[in-house]
Amino acid sequence: MAKRMGRRTLALENRPGIVSYAAVVGGKEGAGPLKKGFDEVSQDSYFGQDSWEKAETAMLGRCLDLCKEKAGGTTPELILGGDLLNQCVSSAFAVKDRGIPYLGLYGACSTMAEGLALAALLLDGGGVDSALAFTGSHFCAAERQYRFPLEYGGQRTPTSQWTVTGAGAALLSKEGGGLRITHATTGRVVDAGVTDANNMGAAMAPAAFDTLLAHFADTGRDFSDYDAVFTGDLGAVGHDILQDMLQKEGLSPGAQYLDCGVLMYDLLTQDVHAGGSGCGCSASVLAAHILPAMERGVWKRVLFAGTGALMSPLTCQQGCSIPGVCHAVAIERRDAV
Amino acid sequence: MAKRMGRRTLALENRPGIVSYAAVVGGKEGAGPLKKGFDEVSQDSYFGQDSWEKAETAMLGRCLDLCKEKAGGTTPELILGGDLLNQCVSSAFAVKDRGIPYLGLYGACSTMAEGLALAALLLDGGGVDSALAFTGSHFCAAERQYRFPLEYGGQRTPTSQWTVTGAGAALLSKEGGGLRITHATTGRVVDAGVTDANNMGAAMAPAAFDTLLAHFADTGRDFSDYDAVFTGDLGAVGHDILQDMLQKEGLSPGAQYLDCGVLMYDLLTQDVHAGGSGCGCSASVLAAHILPAMERGVWKRVLFAGTGALMSPLTCQQGCSIPGVCHAVAIERRDAV
Q1: Overall pTM > 0.80
Q2: Sign of torsion, CA B121 A169 B86 B234?
Q3: Are A318 and B53 an interchain contact pair (Cβ–Cβ within 8 Å)?
Q4: Which residues pair with A333 in a beta bridge?
Q5: Of A18, B69, B156, B197, which shows the fewest CB atoms inside 10 Å?
Q6: Interface TM-score (ipTM) > 0.90
Q7: How far is A311 from chain B (nearest CA, A)?
């Protein structure tokens, strides 16, 4: 039974465990600083398919298969997932004909955190014994859907981010795994009035701020209680905005505040401007970097705060500002005090 | 604590209750057979806004407000919702700045059933005391996104359905309400190979068949245990396909099998071809017709099986077939035997 703490946090009494996880990425991601952590790197941006959207589906399917294999072939009772394509088709097509019940989510780039939170809550509350959360994104599919066809060769602004070609999955169960999900703080839709669709970091930072503050207030914790706190994909610009906001609030994020969008690429040499973004960013950094490092004992207690910008090209064209959302889950080694 | 029954059904031991519900629709829906049940009918298809997408957002927001008002102003702890627009923007914008945590879903036209199932599971498993599920769709916004701009005046095929301009919401709590959610059966993504984007009923019927069979097998029930079984929006074509499939399986759906897409309009006079569809179809029929009739005692036990087609214009253009999904929740009067 999950227990409510404060206004927005649920403490998971049974602490569902992460049994396995997997990350599959593209060549650019596989050449970055986290290259050793990915399960598979595809040098073929089409992943053997004839369109980028089908490539995204194939990548997600491969990631699902790997995650199941790493759990000894366990078939989860339930899959939760989503993606950035219109009508979330790549995740729906990736689970098609697998015979596993599927709950589709839309949390934009916060989908991995949303899926983990929901999976953990469903496991904690009984009934469901195992659930898999997954998501991903593909740079080429996202560019042509959100911005311009790649062939157009459009210039990118300094604050823009690079949509990660990557997928991440995690299989949770009631019993298994040395890493446990202990808390979930759900996010509110926060609109700070940002209208620049090329500055997602600025649009999402206020939502991350809102959720981190709620998590800390609800649990009585602060940054010092975590070995590391990760936002999903604020990138370098959003990371710094959030750090400023936190410091003005009297919090000391310090070196343990990290952002998956900053970690994914070498910002100096990989020409990604403000860093990585997309559903696949936090999902693949979680599976390739955060969880493995926790298993090695680098960190014992981590807060994973996925961030999403809830806009579409149409809302931007109609002059709407860009709201953000942030869902956070606390993950802990079984031996953390 | 939810308890697993069979392979795909969860029995909700605490039977979360439906405290309030609301439906807001457009003029065409308000002129149909269910006209007496809607809380509000807007003769202005723009709902006071300057675009159809903003109209959809306004309609959803109004439905949320009404649902809260009808629950005596109760603010739910959590909102679950989604819609059909790219990146699910109308639901995200409708909850923006409301200060309530939001979990975005994408279940296409099955979103209301998915949201009800998840809300009920989160309530049953502890932690969450109240949750609101909502969704909606707008004919004009859907037409220009999925098919053609209205100004083009394209002909519609006989099997096509009319996207409902409507929104539905239901507020659930652990304690309140005479109508209780007793079971949730989650859907698998089923692809029967249908490629005609103007025949959604045929594309979704196999998913409904799959979920109904699973629900009956898991619970030991059949049609005779329900006063009425509703599919979401198969329309007249999909309704008949599903009825045939069920009869071949030896089941007797009979008169208690109904479809929200068939109920929404007068198929003979309202020129909607095969009937209603869209997220707003099953959501507003639930709130305007099914739940009120249950409260009046017309039906004591109902199965509400939301159906969704998990496609996009792009997947159809790329030659992919159209998979479907169906999530079912059993709703019961407290005094049902």
Answers
A1: yes
A2: negative
A3: yes
A4: A179
A5: B69
A6: yes
A7: 6
